[in-house]
Automatic annotation (TrEMBL):
Residues 125-169, 394-428 form a coiled coil. PANTHER family: FCH AND DOUBLE SH3 DOMAINS PROTEIN, FORMIN-BINDING PROTEIN 1-LIKE. Belongs to the FNBP1 family. Residues 470-480 have a biased composition (Basic and acidic residues). This is Formin-binding protein 1-like.
Length: 599
């Protein structure tokens, strides 16, 4: 019997199908991993890709551009992972699932055929066994009938009728035994034939079919293994290109170009501040008796400055809405000392009128003038970009002029096209009405005129910026030459002007004008100087309450910046006003309250 081997083959084929399904499950999980990997890569790229809402936010640095190119390559790489997943799903997993279903159906059919053949052989064996048992039983009955006949035949007391009856019974059992013998022989021959056929034809054929089925399963697994690897190998060239793109992006990083872009981006065009002049306050304090009294020429110079200051003040509105009276020269550290007494003795005495150093700090309101600091730190942008540094302003104006020129060219092309269309309509009225183009043509002409005006206006601003930049450049080149002259034109009070004729060679003397000083200022006493400053850039001072200054001019600080971008300053001649804090280099005295140095 081969039923045990049949069961073994049944188990083996079932194991083969289970293994096939297990590999299919492995491929499915690998597909899910590839899909999740690709999804996570795409999310990563999306997270770090820039959201370009405007041109200003576009990446400019080569390092940033390289990083964004790497992100694009990584996005393509993620797409290749998706291709791998799709190829595995279609070529491997889907094929495995279909083949597993067909394999189960074929296996079931072969097993059913084997079971049917075994059942038919069992049936033949039962029939043969039944005929055998029947033949055996009939033979025993025939033997019993023969023994009964022989006993009656030898018994002298038995009648002839009994002997005859026993003989007939013997013949009947013998005949039935012969028939069962023939039937048993036929069943035995039939069973032997079916058994031979079963073990040498039917079962080997079923086993061969199961073997072929299992071999096909093995071949299919081999093909799926190859397809699994081919799905990965097909995308290797594209993945290699992605990696090469990343390497090229890394090689494209140019540190010098990035540095130059940073310089161009933040280049302001302002001239660096020059050397701060030395202010010698000691030359009058340590004056010896042999120097004599202050010369009359210096007194006359002081009076001349007072008159010129008063004349300037008359033609200018005062900050507090009150025209100032002619002012006496501001007190300096030398004003604390008086000249020789009437008896002619030459010595210095401490004055009892140190007004600037005895007054309390007077808090006064400042005019409502727009803060220059707020404009530089992101305030409302002006049309001429005057809130920007010169270099940045020049770039912005040049960009605007380029955009306007492009718009002008577009409008000019449109005008030319409309004129051509108008000529065509005039020559061929059936094609259209020339008058219908007149509104559009007029609108285009207006746009052209407007753009030309805008271009002219921006070019004027650009010329102004370029002119100032050229002047600053010339001034920067001559700074070393003028350094000695600048040192020579410093007054004892620290004032400095570009005009040598406006220099004050000595401190103006009060010359006994204390009563006149009180009459001139009345209740508007001047604030004490708490420091000094030097103008880094020139300031026009057109607004009311402001103080014009030249580049390099030294002024007194009488009130600090309160946070609105303006500092109150005073010239040596007594003229006061507000100047932008960002235009000056401030140095406060160490003993002044809240002294802070602004750069």
């Amino acid at each position: 019997r081969s039923w045990d081997q049949f069961d073994s083959l049944d188990k083996h084929t079932q194991w083969g199908i289970d293994f096939l399904e297990r590999y299919a499950k492995f491929v499915k999980e690998r597909i899910e991993i590839e899909q999740n990997y690709a999804k996570q890569l795409r999310n990563l790229v999306k997270k770090y890709c820039p959201k370009r809402s405007s041109k200003d936010e576009e990446p400019r640095f080569t390092s940033c551009i390289a990083f964004f190119n790497i992100l694009n390559e990584l996005n393509d790489y993620a797409g290749q992972r998706e291709v791998v997943a799709e190829e595995m799903a279609h070529r491997v997993y889907g094929e495995l699932m279909r083949y597993a279903h067909d394999l189960k159906t074929e296996r079931k059919m072969h097993l059913q055929e084997g079971r049917k053949a075994q059942q038919y052989l069992d049936m033949c064996w039962k029939q043969m066994d039944n005929s055998k048992k029947k033949f055996e039983r009939e033979c025993r009955e025939a033997e019993k009938a023969q023994q009964s006949y022989e006993r009656l035949d030898n018994d002298t007391n038995a009648t002839k009728a009994d002997v005859e009856k026993a003989k007939q019974q013997l013949n009947l059992r013998t005949h039935m035994a012969d028939e069962n013998k023939n039937e048993y022989a036929a069943q035995l021959q039939n069973f032997n034939g079916e058994q031979h056929k079963h073990f040498y034809v039917v079962i080997p054929q079923i086993y061969k079919q199961l073997q072929e089925m299992d071999e096909r399963r093995t071949i299919k697994l081999s093909e799926c293994y190859r397809g699994f690897a081919d799905s990965e190998r097909k995308v290797i060239p594209i993945i290699s290109k992605c990696l090469e793109g990343m390497i090229l992006a890394a090689k494209s990083v140019d540190e010098r170009r990035d540095s130059q872009m940073v310089v161009d981006s933040f280049k302001s065009g302002f001239e660096p501040p020059g050397d701060f002049p030395f202010e010698d306050y000691s030359q009058h304090i340590y004056r010896t008796v042999s120097d004599g009294t202050i010369s009359a020429s210096k007194q006359e110079g002081g009076k001349m400055d007072s008159k010129s200051t008063a004349g300037k003040a008359k033609g200018k509105l005062w900050l507090f809405g009150k025209k100032p009276k002619p002012q006496s020269p501001p007190l300096t550290p030398t004003s604390l000392f008086t000249s020789s007494p009437p008896n002619g003795s030459q010595f210095l005495t401490l004055s009892i009128e140190p007004v600037h150093y005895c007054m309390n700090e007077i808090k006064t309101g400042k005019p409502r003038i727009p803060s220059f600091r707020s404009l530089k730190r992101g305030g409302p942008a002006l049309e001429d970009f005057s809130h920007l540094p010169p270099e940045q302003r020049r770039k912005k104006l040049q960009q605007r002029i380029d955009e306007l020129n492009r718009g002008l060219q577009k409008e000019s092309d449109q005008k030319e096209a409309l004129n051509k269309m108008k000529d065509v309509y005039e020559k061929n009225p059936q094609m259209g009405d020339p008058g219908s183009l007149q509104p559009k043509l007029a609108e285009t002409m207006n746009n052209i005129d407007r753009l030309r005006m805008e271009i002219h206006k921006n070019e004027a601003w650009l010329s102004e910026v370029e002119g100032k930049t050229g002047v600053r450049g010339d001034r920067r080149h001559s700074s070393d030459i003028n350094h000695l002259v600048t040192q020579g034109r410093e007054s004892p009070e620290g004032s400095y002007t570009d005009d040598a004729n406006q220099e004050v060679r000595g401190p103006p003397q009060q010359h006994g004008h204390h009563s006149e000083f009180d009459d001139e200022f009345e209740d508007d006493d001047p604030l004490p100087a708490i420091g000094h400053c030097k103008a880094i850039y020139p300031f026009d001072g057109h607004n009311e309450g402001t103080l014009a200054m030249k580049e390099g001019e030294v002024l007194y600080i009488i009130e600090e910046d309160k946070g609105d971008g303006w500092t109150r300053a005073r010239r040596q001649n007594g003229e006061e006003g507000y100047v932008p804090t960002t235009y000056i280099d401030v140095t406060l005295e160490k003993n002044s309250k809240g002294a802070v140095t602004y750069i």
